[in-house]
Amino acid sequence: MTLRHVEKTYGTVWAVRQTDLEVGAGEFVSIVGPSGSGKTTLLTMIAGFEPPTAGSIRVGDRDVTMLAPNRRNIGMVFQKYALFPHMTVRQNIAFPLRMRDLARGQSADKRIDAMLELVQLHGLQHRYPHQLSGGQQQRVAVARTLVFDPPVILMDEPLGALDKKLREAMQFEIKRIQERIGATVIYVTHDQEEALTMSDRVAVMHKGRVEQIGTPSDLYSNPDSAFVADFVGSINFVPGIVCGQDRSHTGIKVRNTVIQVPRPTGRSTYRQREGAAVRIAARPEHISIAPYQDHDAQSLSGTIETIVFAGATRTALVRLHGSPDLVLRADVPSSFRSLPQRGSHVALVLCSEALRIFDAERVE
Amino acid sequence: MNIVASHRRQGPLAAIIRPRHASRYAPLTSWLLAFPLVATFATGFLYPLSKLVALSFANGAESYVRLLEDFLYVRVMTTTVATAAAVTVFCILLGYPVAFAMTRLRGKAALITAACVFIPLWTSVLIRSYAWIVLLQRNGLVNDFLQSAGLSDQPLKLLYTLGTVVMGMTHILLPFAILPIYATLRTLPPDFARAAANLGAGPFRTFFSITLPLSLPGLFAGAILCFVLALGFYITPALIGGPGSMLMATLIGQQTTVLLDWPFAAALSTVLLAVALLIVFLFRRALSLSKGFHSVH
């Protein structure tokens, strides 16, 4: 499936700006972004509920840009499932076949049975949607979409209404089904964790445009922008000034410390202006805590504010010395012997290979 | 969940009147809140009603025997029910598209449509019935137009026919069909229609297999309202109906004010009430038998 230069405006308001997206057969692509970033609008245009203002949408070699939704043959799982309340589970799943005049005959019955089997709802086929739990309704919605074998399946925050435990179980369930039948899925969510665990590729949307698209690990380790870095996983931003660059590293001065950050290999031509205000982005797992006496010209120092237990790790919130507004998160393994105490002074060592530089935040 | 679900089985009106998650009051509070209505209802309705039923048996069952034996009265009865049924059907057929349009319209168009539905509703039935007289009388607007346009060389008899009565009553009762249907349609999430389209249903099939069935509770509520109100309609048939189109309410009025035969009028009223109750009961049965409706919202 290919989107080319797809745009959508409402009056003078941009909902989606020139967007290009290519999804290969059998691929699971997530679109993530905060609410209002245009991800749902993008989905409604692919499904055909709203025409794009400009651009084209193709499925295979078929241009569907202006095709009515019922002629597109694109499946969609809605956020609130949109199961028809006056039909049983079986009737709901048979609906797309009925609309294609395929509902009668043994092959249709077999197909519906196979779907019920796939989502493990065979015993509940004569129930009405309101007699099912949220997770079961979700599975019916998935089965109803899969039954007519659409080349592309859209999912609009399908797990948003479920509680955390069930959501995690359903993530695996959807992934299992998707892999088993090799479906092409475009999955919209505001939950970046969900997107990272399920997807082959993730597109991060922000203010109506795709900021970056890539594999989950790509997005996590090589974010193109501060927004992506911040949205995918948690990250610390430390403001500093560019001072001195050589071929491989850029020096960033943070108060009295100069931190060497490797220059991205991909764009060697890109040079930070000397003295420019920038931000260093460091993931919590790339900041390590050392005793205060190890503090040197390469490390920062601060006071531990809180330590939060988070299972395998503990997260320390450290207030930087000399920058009272700045609190950094550092992850410490729980097995770590000499866990620092609250209120103690520590040195913070930034793992320089994993750091990224972004322009300083513009005050908007 | 069970509480909510059981509420939903209470029929079409409950589905509209009852808020989504009605919080529950303590029994005493509920009784106190309901007391004024219950008291008024008991003294102003139940007591006179029982007197009425008792009155209808003042001469034993004689009134009822007379009612059933005289072909004329049976005919008035069947005409009344048939008229009410016709009015109901017309109200639903004309009202549904309006209600449907009201859910889609935005801005000025929505305002104008709502005004067209509500302003007649707030206008006296008397005025609206007289309006039909102004339009349809021998030298009224319609006859004037027909004659000046050369479509007819003499004034047509447009008033005082059963057809006119049905038209007038349909006009007056239309809002009672539109509003419950509109209320139900508005609570239907747009996702249902979108899902249907996504699964391959064109606009026509989406309407008949999804929107219409899901709006049946509102449709039934509107139909019951129209039917029951039409059964007892007095002013409109009295003003624009003729002697050939005598309806129950007019007959009852005649018996009480002209012939002063109160026991017979009471018997007529009781029969009318029984028919109305029977119809409401049947409607509710029909609704509770069609599964899934109570889960619509």
UniProtKB/TrEMBL annotation, chain A:
It is an enzyme of class 7 (translocase). GO terms for molecular function: ABC-type polyamine transporter activity; ATP binding; ATP hydrolysis activity. Its EC number is 7.6.2.11. Coiled coil: none annotated. One of its GO terms (biological process) is quaternary ammonium group transport. The complex is composed of two ATP-binding proteins (PotA), two transmembrane proteins (PotB and PotC) and a solute-binding protein (PotD). This is Spermidine/putrescine import ATP-binding protein PotA. The gene is potA.
From TrEMBL, chain B:
One of its GO terms (cellular component) is plasma membrane. GO terms for biological process: transmembrane transport. The chain crosses the membrane at residues 28-47, 72-98, 110-133, 158-185, 219-242, 262-283. Keywords: Cell membrane, Membrane, Transmembrane, Transmembrane helix, Transport. It comes from the Bacteria. InterPro entries: MetI-like, MetI-like_sf. Residues 77-283 form the ABC transmembrane type-1 domain. CDD domains: TM_PBP2. The keyword Translocase does not apply. It is found in: Cell membrane. It is a multi-pass membrane protein. Its main location: membrane. The keyword Cell membrane applies. Belongs to the binding-protein-dependent transport system permease family. CysTW subfamily. This is Mannopine transport system permease protein. It comes from Rhizobium giardinii.
